[in-house]
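step 3/5: co-fold with pyridoxal-5'-phosphate
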Amino acid sequence: MKQAIAVHQNDLPVSEMAKSLVGSEIIKLAGQIKKKIAAGEKIRNFTIGDFDPEIFPIPDALKSAIVSAYENNETNYPAANGLLSLRETVSDFIGHYGHFDYTADEILISGGARPLIHAVYQTIVDPGDRVVFPVPSWNNNHYTHLSRGEAIFVETQPEDHFMPSAENLHPHLPHARLVALCSPLNPTGTTFTEEGLRAICTAVLEENKRRKGTGSKPLYLLFDQIYWMLMHGETRHFDPVTLVPELRDYTIYIDGISKAFAATGVRVGWAFGPAGIIGKMRAILSHIGAWAPKAEQVASAKFLSNISACDAYLADFKQKIGHLLNGLYKGFVALETAGYRVQAIAPQAAIYLTVRFDLKGCKTHTGKVLENTREITQYLLNEAGLALVPFHAFGASEDSTWFRLSVGTARLETLPDLFADLKTALDRLS
Ligand SMILES: Cc1ncc(COP(=O)(O)O)c(C=O)c1O
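step 4/5: write tokens
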């Protein structure tokens, strides 16, 4: 029988980077939720930034194209920067749905968005370089850590819908190598306004003008728009280069099919930006081998070039997501109106709702006072069967009482029951 090696994780003789890598809080929470579900507890799990394929399957046309690609033996290495047919299709796709004018040579395909984000950091950031990003935001702290950079957290505010402003970022720009932005934002489901993003872009451009001729390297902008196809209501998507075209040489976009087409497990993402940077990212990823599988690339090229199939899928998908987000939002507004200490930000985009449980200092029926966010999270999980991720898991301060609700695995018909249980749990607090 194999003997387990009893070495504590922190004592392993590994690199300092590996030793100090922080595990995902969300994964820890997920383990706890799994146990509760296995024990038969009724848990509504809003923690996962993914889709339940039973509720949100990928488009049929994409699925059948993947199957036929395997039947046609599309199983050898794809080109290191992605199949030309897919890069050409992505060029047309982003031009059709946005104002993007990028050729196939300025586009890089990879196994989802994650390797591309990593490659941007690896291409731009040297050890010790500063990376500026707003918090809460998704995983920038980890990508900065992997590139041995220095993370500059810029905490955003609920009154700004948790989006950063030029004013917030400005003091940090002179010393930074990379600004990492995301809109629509994970975890909040909120977006940049046109004026808000334009002001940031202007500040980044001014900083680059200041650096010209000084020998300093430029300030780059990573713009993650993986959720841009999922805008709700009147909300519009804005992006840096469309607003400020002179930023083209400094901006790298992250995008893909994972969220737009509920295809998180299919693993096809793309980046686009200046050809030189994209070329370096390709070189880095070719050593890692983080290609999207060839059959999925062939199929994605076929599907994404079928605009009417994309439109039909998106219309239905966005409607379902929108109903869920609005149903939840209305439920929270009703609770707030009835005097409960909750708050929600109206949904704008993506699959997330931002809610606040201002329950610090409340006493439970057992006489225990909820002291911090961790205890509020546990109370909601144990007493209302409601599983949410607190914003501090996305880098916000420990005492933030704001949470992310993800609807990718939720069913509309379960909401009345959820709000009834939540109300009971809140009623038991004093
Ligand atoms: C903002 C953001 N960017 C990128 C990703 C990763 O996308 P992918 O699954 O394509 O790697 C996620 C996944 O949750 C995300 O929320």
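step 5/5: annotate
The first strand starts at residue 44 and ends at 45.
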